[in-house]
Write a structure and sequence with these properties.
mainly beta, single chain, Large ribosomal subunit protein bL33c, chloroplast, 4-stranded antiparallel beta sheet, Rubrerythrin, domain 2, structural constituent of ribosome, ribonucleoprotein, 0% helix
Length: 66
């Protein structure tokens, strides 16, 4: 039997804005999304513009290591 490498992997996207360090907001935390990507089509780290509930605006979310 041949080894089957996972082509589609589950990744985590994290907000790049400093939501946790912003003292003006009442909510403190980090916005994270989980999604899947195809390793063959996108070998580099993924960056998507998603809504951050802590910043209350659309910000860039980058792929993080697990």
């Amino acid at each position: 039997m041949a080894k089957n490498k996972d082509v589609r992997v589950t990744i985590t996207l994290e907000c790049t804005n400093n939501c946790a360090q912003n003292n003006e907001k009442k909510k403190l935390g980090v916005s994270r999304y989980t999604t899947q990507k195809n390793r063959r089509n996108t070998p580099t780290r993924l960056e998507l513009k998603k809504f951050c509930s802590y910043c209350n605006k659309h910000t860039i979310h980058k792929e993080i290591k697990k």
